[in-house]
Amino acid sequence: MNITENYIGYDDLPKNKQEVIKECDKKNLVLAEISQPATSLPKKTCKDSIKNLSEPDLQVNKKYEKENIILAETSQADVLLSKITVKIPVKNLSEISQSVLPKKKFQFTDFCYDILHELENKSYANLFYKYIEKDIKKKIIKYPMDLFTINLKLKNNQYTSLEEFEKDIRLIFCNCYTYNDVESEVYRSGKTLECIFNKKWNEKLILQGKQTNELKRVRENDTEDTDRTWKKQIQILEQNKDNLMYRQVVNDALLITSAYENLVIGNIIPFIEILKTFLLTRSKMSLSLANESMLQAIVESLLPLKYRVPELSLVMDGKKSKGSGRFGYSDIFVLKGLGNNYISLELKYISLVGLIKNQKVGFGANELENLDKILEKENEEILLKRSYTYWSKELKKTNQTTIGEILNNGISQLKSYMNTISKGKVANYSSSGVFDERIEIIKSNPNKLKGFVILVIGFRRILWKPIEEVISNYNYNKI
């Protein structure tokens, strides 16, 4: 028996709706009939779905339960039937989603939005968009659901799996068939819309399965390549174990790795030590030219390429325009890898030229080096009060401040960056958050964001200040 032979009111439907139903018939969906009083939900299709609803789903349903809204036509006097006929696929599509998709969690929000928009674009979808109490004659639905609620849950990242999304969609159809006359426009539109959902759902699951399998093959190939490379590197090191140059390179790499491992657990001291060691290798002749860009490049070189994101792009205030405080850039965002925390670094560099300029008209590399050595041992309280002159790009003039003010500004700046990062990906044009194509952001259990302001003066003096940690409900991965 096919759908068209057992469809009540099929001949009254417009041709375009008949074509959609025929299309579903071609998909060989085996349908079963279930008959029961309309005072309860269909045993197979609704009750089980409601029983398995997650806590967030029940909270949404309780909100609507106060209104007891039902989906019905405003002009229809007799909404309910003593018995109803519901046709459902014998094979639950949630089983398909379990078999086609891997157990590993993937970013499914776009997947769900595509399905939802496909349904919302149909002219008769407005019947299922949102319940309106004043248009309802009888109010008995215990677990209402509509497209508006699903859209809202997607926007607020309340879904944690495809199965939860599918349950809510099917709950709409369950309520439609349970509480509406079989010959009503609402009932027939629900049937048509469900056929469209089944078709699109299967198509996207199959496509997603193919893409996932292809990605798995690529990853397996990458793993094999990595293993081969690693074995080759071990072989080269073994062959050159007595070579002093190779030994030094390995020692340097181990120091950098150890500094990174300490950094992501919140201990910055080993990283500061290796940074100072690197700075001291530079010539005194470069003291007059050293700046923040130089510091940025050095710090980047001391962090693993895979776990650092320089100049992370952020939308600080989505309501502002470009050039007026809309965008910001976190100097270096460090991914946790196997560590416990994500780390955000704010870098500040104090040029010795800006400190000596008001004290002496003529100066050279020797004078700068002497000042560098003095500042290395200077009391921190006195150091922070030192006047500093610099050129302001924004104001296009020379400004005078203190080292302490620059440090405090860096602290305030980093706090703002960390709060923005904790919001996750930018949701829309007017919102704030991370706006960087190099980063994949996924909803997760709470994670810690830690921050450090690193202020370097010359090549010998480094000040650093920790920032109060921020909690984020996201994971950040480098693409």
From TrEMBL:
UniProt KW keywords: Bromodomain
SUPFAM superfamilies: Bromodomain
Gene Ontology CC: one annotated term: chromatin
GO biological process: chromatin remodeling; regulation of DNA-templated transcription
Keyword Plastid among UniProt keywords: no
InterPro entries associated with the record: Bromo_chromatin_reader, Bromodomain, Bromodomain-like_sf
PROSITE patterns associated with the record: BROMODOMAIN_2
Residues of the Bromo domain: 139-187
Pfam families: Bromodomain
Protein name: Bromo domain-containing protein
Organism: Rhizophagus irregularis
